[in-house]
Amino acid sequence: MAIPRTSTVDPSLLSCFYEGISKPRRLAHGLRRLGEMLDCERVSLRIWDRRGYWASVVEALHVEDRWELRIDDGVQPEPLLRTLIRHVESGQWTRQEQPQLRAPKSGAQEPGECPPREIIFSTRLPLFQAEAVLSLHRQGGDWPDPQAQLAIATDACRALLPALDPIARLQQLSLQVNQQTAMLNGIRMPMLLLDASLRPLAANASARARFCLTARVPAGKIAAALPGVSVSQFAQLIERACAKPAAGGVIEFSASAAKGATYLLVLPRHVLAPGGGHVPAALVVVQGEDDIPLHAHELLQNIYHLTPAEARLALLLLEGQSPGQAASALHLSVSTIRSQLSSILKKTGAQRQSDLLRRLSPLTFLNPAAPLR
Asked: What pLDDT shows up at residue 17?
């Protein structure tokens, strides 16, 4: 059934939807309001990541004489959701009919009467790296005038879509922050991720203890600072890591007179942007005498997700070997080496081999610890 087109949206509905960007319960109130307008017993909104990392369910359910609001951001995408997306189209209302599970509002079923049916109208709302399905549940049969009711629901969808897109983007960013933090926490030395303005995006426990994460830059944003390191010199390294072409850098400093040299390594990275795509960022690593040694081979696998073979190749290239020399050292064909190099470039964001070496040059200050097998 094609979605009808009208242009009337209840202002109170708009208010609930847009406030729902930061307050999920207001979004649920909007669904309740929509259910009241359309004389539905249940209005459900399912949002999930296309890659299967997260899902969210918001529902308004009419039970007896009151409405129950349900919000669950912790659910995992289920096969049911994937099946649903295949049967529901964007820009169309899909009608389904199934046995009614609860007694209708009018009372109990009479003997010999046909079991009541539940009518479900669903439509799909494509979002940023996510999908959403809005479902309207009505018990006891169709509306007297389905076209008129679906016209109201269509206007509600158009009002809901601009509010849902930021919600999906925030979910994606939250997922990325959690993943980055988990990745950094897996390494027991100070590591944090900064954007071009020195604003921390993620940090592990060691970095939070070592860095000052409450310093303010002139723009008023929270920035990172490390005692013993010049702020201007630190900012220059971050700027280089976030520039095009990006380059890594190293600062040698002394945390105290009693301790030896400590190295601050800056490596270029990319993170998901709120508006889609990726933006440059800088990964900061601190390696000192008191820190648990971090091997370059380990960092390449954990930070850039290189395979062990790719990490070994990257370290040989950093030592100055050519792809042909690396092939001989690793007892592999040149074509295999070039295939691995192509994968390394893609994972690190480098355009060519010279760009890769410029980005990963700080790793020469770490122990390779990469057995050549």
From this structure: 85
- Count of residues in the chain: 373
Distance from C-alpha of 340 to C-alpha of 342, rounded to nearest angstrom = 5
Q: What HEC string does 323-356 produce?
A: HHHHHHHHCCCHHHHHHHHHHHHHHHCCCCHHHH
Structural element, H or E, at residue 79: helix 79-87
Continuous segment of H or E residues that includes residue 261 = strand 261-272
Min mean pLDDT across 90-94, 110-114, 257-261, 281-285 is at 110-114
Cβ burial of 357 (10 Å; 0-12, 13-18, 19+) is: middle
Q: Under a CB-based contact definition with an 8 Å cutoff, are residues 233 and 280 in contact?
A: no
Cis link prior to 245 (omega < 30° from 0)?
yes
pTM (two decimals): 0.58
Helix, strand or coil, per DSSP, at residue 87? helix
Q: Are 287 and 259 in contact (CB under 8 A)?
A: no
Q: What's the pLDDT tens digit per position in 218-240?
A: 554 546 777 778 888 888 999 99
CB-side exposure of 104: number of CA atoms within 13 Å?
A: 18
Q: In angstroms, rounded to a whole number, what is the distance separating the alpha carbons of residues 338 and 38?
A: 61
Domains and CATH numbers, the chain: 11-174 (3.30.450.40), 178-365 (1.10.10.10)
Ordered DSSP codes for 194-219: E-TTS-EEEE-HHHHHHSEEEEE-TT
Using an 8 Å Cβ cutoff, are 313 and 340 in contact? yes
In this structure, is the dihedral angle defined by the CA atoms of residues 182, 186, 187 and 188, taken in order, positive or negative?
A: positive
- Whole-number Å distance between alpha carbons of 268 and 284: 9
Residue 359 has pLDDT above 90, yes or no: yes
CA–CA separation, 33 vs 12, rounded Å? 8
Which tens digits make up the pLDDT trace of 136-194? 998 877 888 888 888 888 888 888 888 888 888 777 777 776 776 776 666 777 888 88
